[in-house]
Amino acid sequence: MWAGGPAADPRSVDGRDRPSRNDSLVAQLSTTVGGPVGDHALIGRARFWTPLRVLFLFTVVFLALGWGAKAPCIQQTSAPDGRAMLDWGDGRQYTAMCYSDTVPLYGAERLDEGAFPYKKSWTEETPDGGVETRYMEYPVLSGLYQYLGMQIAKTWDASPLPGALQVVLYFNVIAFGLALAWLVTVWASATLAGRRVWDIALLACSPLVIVHAFTNFDALATAFAATGLLAWARRKPVLAGILLGLGGAAKLYPLLLLGPIVVLCLRVDPMRRTPSAHTGLRLRDIDSGARALTWLRETPDRIRVTSQRPLGAAGVAVGAAASTWVLVNLPIALLFPQGWREFFRLNTTRHADPDSLYNVITSFTGWSGFDGELAHGEAPTILNTVSLLLFLLACLLIAYIALTAPRRPRLAQLCFLVVAAFLLTNKVWSPQYSLWLVPLAVLALPHRRILLAWMTIDALVWAPRMFYYLGLDRKGLPEQWFTGTVALRDLAVVGLCALIVWQIYRPAQDLVRRDFVDDPVGGVVDRATDPLLPWLPEWLRPWDSLRHHHPAR
């Protein structure tokens, strides 16, 4: 008779996903380092090379490659009078494909003068021969980050330490901070990934990191967004709201993540406490009742009962985010109102960006746009309205998907859909904005081949962009070569959205939800009840619930 099992070893009780065993791509790559993990290997016993430290190593390597890709744009040369200057002659920033906004902004935003952003103004000549007054054009936290980087660069330049041009020192200071922010993004995403921690290798080793980690200041926003989602996952709505509000003060998109949080909380009934409520599973989702009972009995720590009301927690997060954004912006808005409004003014008067869907259509059809020819500084009112309405319609469609899916979607899935919809419908898609999608994509759709293909397409858009900016007179590329690759990038993102929606309506196909996992990012809605929601009209109720209650239909 069997008297009992072997002594428990917590280090081997690990449900971690093993890509070298279940993913053909990783299995092939693993042959270079000894092959797939053994069938009887004890997972989680490494003393030093833990998954997170390996991911940090991958991240540092790819960030170093990203810095190396930008390095040609901080090389120095001598001017005719012997002064040191950047080697940007003859379009070098485009032919070397090393362009970074941080370098020209040092002079363009008057940071080289030591001026405080939003207070300092200057005049620029407009294309029609007039002049206009300009201020710092970035949101408050991004502008203050540039000011801090400038102060550090000037302090370094005045010290006896080895020096260089101030703009070179400034770029390196900014790049160091952005690298730390991306490491924070990786850490938070790895924590959110749970048992599928190795999916985050796609985030650490993304081709987009090489191309865009140091193109602009967007890594700041990804860090706030990822840590905000982590705080929400740990059921700390106040902290989540604060972090997302700070992210919104650096870039807009972290505030968009509040919408999916609210929608998911609307779908949850916080008063019911049943086994299926705790696990996030319905009986028809379980292929083996005995297996489910064993899982519930042996892993009671997975059953979470919380006194937090989901809608209340969502309201707290939204309120904290709004309050944080106001507190960060209010001092600048009161002290320097003209400088603070510059960001909003420019975004209102800005025409369709070269990367936008609207410009792609113009490029191939000759369409003059919704507003036709406009004078400099004249707002494209119709374009602004159309892009806003399209985004709102997309958000309504995403909310409909969230409410009618047979099982409550995961938060990362809805967040990716909302941010992708914003980028696809917006009149501006700056190249570095693609970094916004990377952490969300890895958490929402951890299919390695698919994500790697999309990231590669998106990263390769950089090459025709640079040679389009070079100009035909210097043997650059025609516009359609660039906009054609933009169209391919957009189609790839639309394809990712379609796959996510397909998995939302077929939750059994969701890799994250295998082995009785519900929503690692869900926070108060993770493993919560998924009721019929009788207060909603039938057309907004989950489809399988309607079929269950009306079998004749």
Shape: globular
Mean pLDDT equals 85
Q: Compute the gyration radius: what is it?
A: 25 Å
Uncertain ranges: 1-13, 270-306, 545-553
Most strands sheet: 2 strands, antiparallel
Q: How many H/I helices? A: 24
**How do the helices and strands follow one another from N- to C-terminus?**
HHHEEHHEEHHHHHHHHHHHHHHHHHHH
Please give the domain count.
1
The counted number of beta strands is 4
Strand residue percentage: under 5%
Strand order of the largest sheet: 1-2
- Helical fraction equals 55-70%
Helix/strand/pairing category: mainly alpha
Distance between the termini: 54 Å
Give a quick precis of the structure.
This protein is an all-alpha fold and 553 residues long. It contains 24 helices and 4 strands.
Set down the secondary structure blueprint:
Layout: H1 19-22, H2 24-30, H3 51-70, E1 76-78, E2 84-86, H4 92-95, H5 102-108, E3 122-125, E4 131-134, H6 140-158, H7 166-193, H8 201-204, H9 207-212, H10 218-233, H11 237-250, H12 258-267, H13 275-279, H14 289-298, H15 310-335, H16 337-349, H17 357-365, H18 381-404, H19 411-425, H20 434-444, H21 448-460, H22 462-470, H23 479-505, H24 543-549
Antiparallel strand pairs: 1-2, 3-4
Helix pairs in contact: 3-7, 5-7, 6-7, 6-11, 7-10, 10-11, 11-15, 12-15, 12-19, 15-16, 17-23, 18-19, 19-20, 19-23, 20-21, 21-23, 22-23
Structure characterization notes:
- Residues 1-13, 270-306 and 545-553 have low confidence and may be disordered.
- The protein has one domain (48-285, 307-543).
- With 553 residues, the chain is mainly alpha-helical.
- The strands form 2 sheets. A two-stranded antiparallel ribbon has the order 1-2. A two-stranded antiparallel ribbon has the order 3-4.
- The protein contains 24 helices and 4 strands.
- Helix 10 (218-233) packs antiparallel against helix 11 (237-250), helix 11 runs parallel beside helix 15 (310-335) and helix 15 (310-335) crosses helix 16 (337-349).
- The protein has helices spanning 19-22, 24-30, 51-70, 92-95, 102-108, 140-158, 166-193, 201-204, 207-212, 218-233, 237-250, 258-267, 275-279, 289-298, 310-335, 337-349, 357-365, 381-404, 411-425, 434-444, 448-460, 462-470, 479-505, 543-549, and strands spanning 76-78, 84-86, 122-125, 131-134.
